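Sanity check

After download, print the first record. It should look like this:
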Amino acid sequence: MDPLGLHPKRKLPDKRPIQPDADRPLRAGKYKDLGTVGHNSTPDSIVSLERHHIVSQDTLKKTGQNPNDALAIQMTPSHHQQTMTYGSSKQAKAHREVEH
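Expected structure tokens:
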């Protein structure tokens, strides 16, 4: 089982080091509390971030939980696309079906 939805054999293509400043680290927490903007090596270089549910939104809804209150992590869009539950592909749908 892969609780983060990250396939262990995939190489992540995004080689940019994310060096969040002290005021804006990459975080985990409630989905609704996480932002979608981060910083690269300097505070004035903006990096787009996405929020990734640890348990997929579909599974949370099926079990009666509010996805906005669920645990999530910030990640770059290219890393998010590498997760097993990202998007509407057949593989992502199949992974979400067996998740719960």
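If your output differs, re-run the checksum step. Summary of this record's structure: DSSP finds three helices and five strands in the chain.
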